[in-house]
Amino acid sequence: MSDEKDLQQLKKEAAERAKQLARERMAAKKETEQTEQTLEKTVSLNEEVEAKQEKTAEKDDDLELAKKKAAAAAKAKAAALAKQKAKEAEQSGESADSDELAKQKAIAAAKAKAAAAAKAKAAALAKQQAQEGNNAEASEDEIAKAKAKAIAAAKAKAAAAAKAKAAQAQASETPKQEEKPSPNQVYLDKYVKVIKEHLGEDVLEDAYINRLSKDVPTLVAKKDTYYKIAQFLKYNEQLGFDYLSDLHGTDFQTHMEVYVHLYSYKNNQSVALKVKIDRDNPEIDSLVPLWPGANWPECEAYDLLGIQFKGHPNLIRIFLGENWVGHPLRKDYEPYDVEV
């Protein structure tokens, strides 16, 4: 049965390691998803910047085309004005010199007007381009930050994956440290074997080495076999536990438990005998007929926990008195008089 408990403990540890690995894998997966989302945003920002750059190039082409159109319009207008002035000069009989002067003035005025219009349009386009350039620079900064963030996330993801892989490799390579068998295991096996041979296979509820109490071999009896096992432990020639060194009770809220520690002077060995009893009706056989030393410990358990020991010669309260209400070591105990 001790081997079964060790196996259960090993299974529990393996399950905990599996859960830890699953958590690390989930964290790595989450970081991967975040990295992919960041990269998608980066690609989207790149596409937006490229689109804005294309629009800016198209506007530059529009500006050149507008300049050419303005110049052509100015030339056409100047030619028309010159033609009209020449016609008027012929009709009024003005001299050829006056005609040429008017023509030059008209051409100059038309050119000045066209140049002013082209300059104003160019200034407006330059202003718009400058604004879009600032936006493009801001977008480039955002792209740079996004790239840096994506690189950092990728590095973190790689580090987490490497850590998880190393932990997994270490878990698979590290040999399981088996717990050393207790030196008292041979005695526990002997007690269990002798008891089952004489009293039957189903008289014990459990048997194990109590690592928390100096590796004492521990037998857990059923309620109806508790007294019979205790009697066998005392009078069997191979066992001979003739001294009761301790008896006490414990409230576990779901049930109560009586613990008995026995010692064999003949074999220089000890054993613990335990039994679980109903909490609402805590009643069990008294061991006073077998070991008179159980008298006062059973009275103490009755006084503080309310456990009834059948067959006890004089079960009384030894600390609190018969008029005391309740049993102080019960987990649900409430003082009858809070002032006391």
TrEMBL record:
Region span, Disordered: 1-61, 79-102
SUPFAM superfamilies: Nqo5-like (SSF143243)
Swiss-Prot/TrEMBL keywords: Transport
Biased segments, Basic and acidic residues type: 1-33, 49-58
Keyword presence, Membrane: no
Molecular function (Gene Ontology), one example: oxidoreductase activity, acting on NAD(P)H
Residue span(s) of domain NADH:ubiquinone oxidoreductase 30kDa subunit: 221-334
Stored InterPro entries: NADH_DH_suC, NADH_quin_OxRdtase_su_C/D-like, NADH_UbQ_OxRdtase_30kDa_su
Family, similarity comment: Belongs to the complex I 30 kDa subunit family.
Family matches, as NCBIfam families: NuoC_fam (TIGR01961), PRK07735.1 (NF005832)
Identification of the protein by name: NAD(P)H dehydrogenase subunit J
Species this chain originates from: Paranoxybacillus vitaminiphilus
Classification lineage: Bacteria, Bacillati, Bacillota, Bacilli, Bacillales
